[in-house]
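Think of the structure tokens as a kind of shorthand, similar to the way a musician reads notation: each symbol stands for something richer, in this case the local conformation of the backbone. In the example below we present two proteins back to back. Begin with the first one, reading the sequence and then the tokens, and try to describe in your own words what changes along the chain.
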Amino acid sequence: MLLAAPGSAAVPPGRLLVLAAAVLALHLMLLQAAPGPVSLDEPLATRQFITRTIEINRPAAELPAGAPAPVPEPAPLPAPVPQARPRAAQAEPLSTPPAAPAAEPVPAPPRAAADMPPSPAAAASSPPLPAPAAEAAAPAPREPGPRATAFSIPGSVKLLYNVTGEIKKQAWNARGELLWRHDGSSYQARSEVSAFLAGTRTQTSAGRITPEGLAPARFSDKSKTELAAHFERDRGRIIFSANTPEAPLLTGAQDRLSVFLQLGAMIAGEPSRFPPAATISVQTAGPRDADTWLFTVEGEEKLALVNGEMAALKLMRNPRRDFDMKVELWLAPALGYLPVRTRLTQQNGDFVDQQLRSTDKP
């Protein structure tokens, strides 16, 4: 049954249904456009932001069991700075984080704090820093001055000398000998001068034969009493039994007997390195002290010895200070540059001059 207003035409039922549907749709659209507390089709943006923040800043070791995986990001974010794990969880293996864009480099700590042990957080988050340059291995110390490159050690022999001298204008004569023995690794040298009514004076030197020539271990000088110098190479010191101050032990150091044999071995090893005017510096220890003796090569001379002439290379040590001793030394190439003559002169004019008389077996 259709209703119609008086005087109006009747409306077909189909058109009524269409009108009703249109009105209902219009009301629904107005309802959705109006502001309201809840939107059914809107995603939970606030919940998603909170969850992402927590997951990024909390270390993996602190996530509760069964926690949901982080929501994937629409765009990559900078990698967060890793945080230290609690001490109780240090033994647990860390999972490898996914690849992420490189973060900005973390500035290195100031040098003043570089020597402090790193904190656990710094050790976990920062790569190891290179060692400062000051901690690099120090270069080996340089040797003091040039060194001989070759040595030639003469065989064992006994040299016999005629000795003349003068003390306070009084001349005297004596016999002397130099006994030189070695086995290729160690050596012994003994110089002895005996004079009638004056007694005997003996100097000895003992030590090793090394790639640098002779390395004395002990030197002694004995007349009425004996004094000695000890070369303590492990400490780098020369010790004197006279209770005088110690001396530093330098490379190539010799004593007052071995120095003549060392000079001969150096020159015999490479004669071309020691032309006239060449100088040789050797630390030389006596029974009470050590000093640097500077020798100058003066050239070859012909010596008139008891058994005839012999060619010898002369070296001279001139005094540099008061009370220094003048040393003249002649080394014979025919005898492996062993000393065939030595002359020692004190500042007051006293001297000792010994010249080769003959050679013998040791």
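Once you have a description of the first chain, move to the second and do the same.
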Amino acid sequence: MFKRISGRVLGAALSLVCVTGHTQLATQTSPQQPAAADPGVPELRLRAGKAYENKDYEVYRQSMSKLHELRPNNSEYMYHLVLAHALLDEKPQAFNLMLLMQRQGLSYDFNQSEASMNLRKPQLYSYLNDLMIDAGKPLGTAIPVVTLAPDVILPEGIEWDASRDAFLVSAVRSGSIIAVSKDGTSTELLKADESNRVWGIYDIAIDAKRDRLWAVSTANEDYSGFDTTDRGRSVLIEIDLSSMEIIKRYPVPIDGLPHNLRNVTVSPKGDIYAVDGVFPIVYVKLASERVLRPMAAYKNLVSLRGLDISDDGKLLYLADYEMGILVINLESGKSASLAVPDTLNLGGIAGLYYWNDQLVVIQNGIKPQRILNLQLDASGRAVSNVAPLAVNLESMDYPSYGTVVGNDLFFFANSHWASNMESAKPVAIARTVLSDAPVIIAPDARKFMKEYASKKGGGARKISIPDADVPKESGSGEEKKEKDGTSGNS
């Protein structure tokens, strides 16, 4: 989860290669060509940290501005960019960004940092800052239904198995699949060992119609039985749901690079789609084929997470932890970013689920942590309405993945990824009702922006007043020209 960074620790924190632990694709430069002029995210973070420590606030602001441009959904970059503008006494720019953050429902208290002192005199600052503090108040409901056993470490995948009347939970640390009844009774159904060549299990997907369970497994340090000779190997596993016998393994094609199949889903036709958490690659195993193959790679994405398919099997939705949601037309192969209003921040999505012409997203890499319903328009490629299910509840500590059962979402309310494993609490499964989400009615801060701009002269008049919230297409101009809202992106 993103954590606020202020004072002397800011430079050290920004010098880290990655806020959220994601691996980024390395760019290679030909010996005949000079290195690329534009720095990447790691270099910009280092540059920003050093500039802050040296009180070179111009470079600090330039670096944070570029980071925000590259990662517009990263709320921590937005927070630091506001502080950079404040340090340079750039009030209009700071207030514009604070307004955007407030309208996106982000929760930050800029009073916690002395860097915001230049902003505090105008009433507009207090109004916006108070609204953002209020955005962190708990909202919605999430009722715990069962707590996993303490020895279930790093649970990632969860499905409801109607045939067993139990949740199936996959654990990375033990490489296990466990049946968990609603009274908390657990039964281990499968466990990794040398004979079955299974490693840490990141996700599972049930295809009840074909009596199949699909699992994605990776060999890395998170798995207790990790052997360095297997490093970076990843596999899709076909399992008989009734007997839990492994039918076939579909390894990621060997290319000399490390991989981590992280999430998996099943289409109505029985096709299997999985995403790589290391490289932005989507893999497919068609029902008519006996091999796992790369379907597409997306150079502009960073860290793929949850995915799901529309009920008609035509659209595949991919969540990228930094870049939002990508929509792929499985018939044409064309893709485009999900069109969203400016008031919706899609950063930090782990779980993503298609339900009743809506997308349900679990955001743990944003502040506040939240679960949202995104109502889709008729095309399925744009968000027409946003409603909260659960926001910053006491039970939510880095919520991660879930499963939709009827009109309910059952999800891991807490996670071990953001915890010290020695003091980590057992993971609880909580329930929220999808049909109970209210429509968000955001306070109208635009009136205060207009009042501030009208009272001040000069640069203050440069404050921009947002128009009505209308979903905007993202991506290239070529993508927008497509009648179906998509274009090639592989």
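Compare your description with these statements about the second chain. Helices lie at 9-14, 41-53, 57-70, 75-87, 91-103, 123-134, 446-455, 477-481.
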